[in-house]
């Protein structure tokens, strides 16, 4: 008997007294949980997002539409970023004031080439206030998943309040599960058994979020 057979056998024995559910899958699990915790105004929801983003060690900025190009340019210059990766559908004005070399997202770009890029600038699909999470879904202003995972610095623009929701259930209502979803809560980080935190292991070492009002 193989290890696979042993594992499946244990699963079958554990489920032997469970009544099978023959109805539609969406009815198998109750959906009677709260869609959000408490009631907040739009402004309070945005403030909670900013607070939780910062709690996850993301750097949060705020600006209006007319201020965005200068802010993006200043943040990239402050990091010394010379090569900046841009998704194909990034609004052209976002990088219009930045003195950088724009690197296009190409299918043939290797991980080594992407690792040479200093920063990546993207939009997002939705931002979740209760968890301090931004979600990318591969839309034109976000590009493919790998471009937000390989470069060491990710600058993400969140349109507020339109892209901000309170909770994960509310976010799921907006997202297409068939799209490549990337959920980001702060910069990439991990801890070893001694709880020593190391950032930049599975993605960007630095995450900056601009709340665009």
Task: Walk me through what this model shows.
The chain has 213 residues and is α/β, with parallel strands linked by helices. It has one domain: NagB/RpiA/CoA transferase-like (Rossmann fold), CATH 3.40.50.10420. It has helices at 3-14, 42-55, 68-79, 111-115, 168-174; strands at 59-63, 83-86, 101-104, 119-122, 126-128, 133-136, 153-159, 164-165, 182-184, 189-191, 197-199, 206-212. It has a six-stranded parallel β-sheet with strand order 1-12-7-4-2-3, sandwiched between helices. A hairpin with a 4-residue loop joins strand 5 (126-128) and strand 6. The termini are far apart. InterPro entries: FTHF_cligase-like_sf, LUD_dom, NagB/RpiA_transferase-like. Pfam families: LUD_dom. It comes from Streptomyces alanosinicus. This is LUD domain-containing protein.
Quantity of strands, as a count: 12
Highest-level CATH class = Alpha Beta
The portion of residues assigned to helices is 10-25%
- Biggest pleated-sheet summary: 6 strands, parallel
Low-confidence spans: none
* Main structural class: alpha/beta
What separation lies between the terminal Cα atoms? 62 Å
Mean pLDDT score, rounded?
Answer: 91
């Amino acid at each position: 008997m193989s290890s696979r057979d042993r594992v499946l056998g244990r699963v079958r024995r554990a489920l032997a007294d469970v009544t099978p559910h023959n109805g539609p899958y969406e009815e198998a699990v109750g959906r009677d949980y709260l869609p959000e915790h408490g009631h907040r105004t739009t402004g309070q929801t945005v403030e909670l997002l900013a607070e939780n983003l910062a709690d996850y060690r993301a750097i949060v900025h705020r600006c209006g539409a007319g201020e965005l190009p200068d802010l993006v340019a200043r943040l990239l210059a402050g990091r010394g970023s010379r090569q900046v990766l841009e998704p194909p559908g990034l609004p052209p004005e976002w990088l219009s004031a930045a003195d950088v070399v724009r690197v296009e997202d190409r299918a043939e770009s290797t991980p080594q080439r992407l690792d040479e890029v200093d920063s990546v600038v993207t939009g997002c699909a939705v931002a979740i206030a209760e968890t301090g999470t931004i979600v990318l879904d591969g839309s034109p202003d976000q590009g493919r998943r790998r471009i937000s995972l390989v470069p060491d610095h990710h600058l993400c623009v969140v349109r507020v309040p339109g892209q901000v929701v309170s909770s994960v259930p509310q976010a799921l209502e907006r997202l297409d599960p068939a799209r490549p979803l990337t959920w980001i809560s702060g910069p990439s980080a991990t801890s070893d058994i001694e709880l020593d935190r190391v950032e930049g292991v599975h993605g960007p070492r630095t995450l900056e979020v601009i709340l665009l009002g």
